[in-house]
């Protein structure tokens, strides 16, 4: 139904009044005519009959006039109906009492007006007193012909009332007034208030913020006056809240009040600046109760702070109780009232430096606590402590490894000598092989220990990853434990790569250990090798991998995974996702550096709850691979078959190592002169003056070390080659070695074959 015509009650219009007067005259005519039958006087009877006739005539005339007026009113309503029916805005025809006579489709669509509803019900959600609001508009329109009023619900609306006839008014509702349709105004709580403090209107944001409709300002502000531009406490359904108040004058004595909710605590008006200071501040009582906290402090603490909050509930870290520390500062004892504390936050670990300042206000003593975020400072301090700890561990590991390497050199060396005198059919041959293999395994463990204490220099060689992983499998199974299964899968045709074997083993161990730690309840770690050809450049993680042949190694686990925000930082030094004390944050950064030094690439993929996969890519160099194989084969054959004829000065302070090296070189045909120190070697050279073709010397010895005595001996014998041997890392004397031309380094433990091969190369 586009227009609803409701029959008006018989009142208030001209036609209705004429109709009422006609009824009165009809009653009078009937009364006069009836009275004429009871009157005996002829003249009086004639007068009564005449009067009743006149009244009857008036009745007929009033009926005809009323009928004409009704026809005119019906015609006017029909014309008005055609005018408002298709109007784009809601239009409503009212009588003098505000009753709805007509309404159009827009009123039904936008306001929800029906035949049963009335205008007051529709406007109840938009104004505080809709009946008084409509009555005032009609009264103004009756006096002035038109009336306009504004309401600010849903971004602004204008109501216009025009007088269109006797006691008939046309109301138009324009919701587009204000232009924003509530997109921004609805988010700011707003109220329209009358002269007496009555709330005429509240927008949806105000009703939502306060929790219910309010009729008076006293229900929101209490007895406190409104202070525009200041923060005031207001009453909401959920308790007291602090708001910034803005007030603007409107028309007809009305005011518009806006509320901006803020997290400012309940403070006095003069102290509002305290909240805006750019430093985290707390005002604390001597017993630890927080009296006040500004915005920066609340943001840093990230916990609700009210009158019942205690400082010990917000932070921790002192050896003694925080209450004792505060009481001492409030009493003025001591000079240093600055401490590093840790906040009790669940999202992340934050350290703060808290500095206390004593404040006396009359008879009351309180403390102002200045909070500074010291997380970065503590992180750097932890890194420094960790580096010092790693340095101490490295020094210890280096010393222990030196002794172990000397022992392993003697064990494996004498085992090699025994193997020369036994063939595979001998009963002792199997035992000797077991001793040799276990000594090599022990040497590998010592090499892993040394990785923590030395700057590893690259020693690239051609590696078969299948063989490398096979040699490493026993150690990896020991590392993962019994709850975790380690499975290896290899490409049947896997090209070799050029890398440092010891460093590559360290990378694989770090990845497997991380995978183990990610699965505390057990699971499977999969190590897979694969060869592939990259036809086009591959861009990933801001790295471009060029085309070519590659060998990939994937280490995947079924652990908890790494969140995306942490995934980008896993290769940073000292960054770890493990709990404090469980990791140094050096494993993945070391692995990244080793892989990049090798010319490879390392990528990580992870899904929280599903596991993590690290992918290593190493380029294949076919030309170098073939040349390296040829050189190694030639060297091996030469070392195995060649018989030497030179004179070697062997200087070694460890008797077992010296005995093994001397016998090994003599078996190859060399003449060996032995010395147990650098001083003894110089004495032999100066007193006996023998012919020497090569110096083989330990680096670290009591008295003069290897480089020192070699430099003195080279003053008279500059053309003699040098082989340095040591159980320490090569970089511990790399600078000295660089100043001695023609020298090479042989790390302990070394085998008979390795020793004779190096000596042969130096004498050629």
The count of DSSP E runs of length 2 or more, i.e. the number of strands, is 30
Largest pleated sheet: 6 strands, antiparallel
Radius of gyration computed on alpha carbons: 51 Å
Mean pLDDT: 76
- Give the helix/strand class: alpha+beta
**Strand line-up of the largest beta sheet:** 12-11-16-15-14-13
- Give the termini separation: 114 Å
Specify the helix fraction band: 40-55%
Strand content: 15-25%
Tell me the number of helical segments per DSSP (H or I, 4 or more residues long): 23
Q: What is the approximate shape?
A: elongated
Show the helix and strand layout:
Layout: H1 14-35, H2 42-84, E1 91-95, E2 100-103, H3 105-111, H4 119-123, H5 130-144, E3 146-151, E4 157-165, E5 168-174, E6 190-193, E7 199-202, H6 204-210, H7 218-221, E8 231-236, E9 239-249, E10 255-262, H8 272-276, E11 280-284, E12 290-293, H9 295-301, H10 311-314, E13 315-316, H11 322-330, E14 338-343, E15 351-361, E16 364-373, H12 375-420, H13 429-450, E17 461-463, H14 465-480, E18 484-489, E19 497-499, H15 501-517, E20 523-534, E21 538-540, E22 543-545, E23 548-556, H16 564-567, H17 587-597, E24 601-607, E25 611-619, H18 622-641, E26 647-651, H19 655-667, E27 671-675, H20 678-687, E28 694-698, H21 706-714, E29 721-726, H22 734-738, E30 743-747, H23 752-763
Parallel strand pairs: 18-20, 26-27, 26-28, 28-29, 29-30
Antiparallel strand pairs: 1-2, 1-5, 3-4, 4-5, 6-7, 6-10, 8-9, 9-10, 11-12, 11-16, 13-14, 14-15, 15-16, 17-19, 20-23, 21-22, 23-25, 24-25
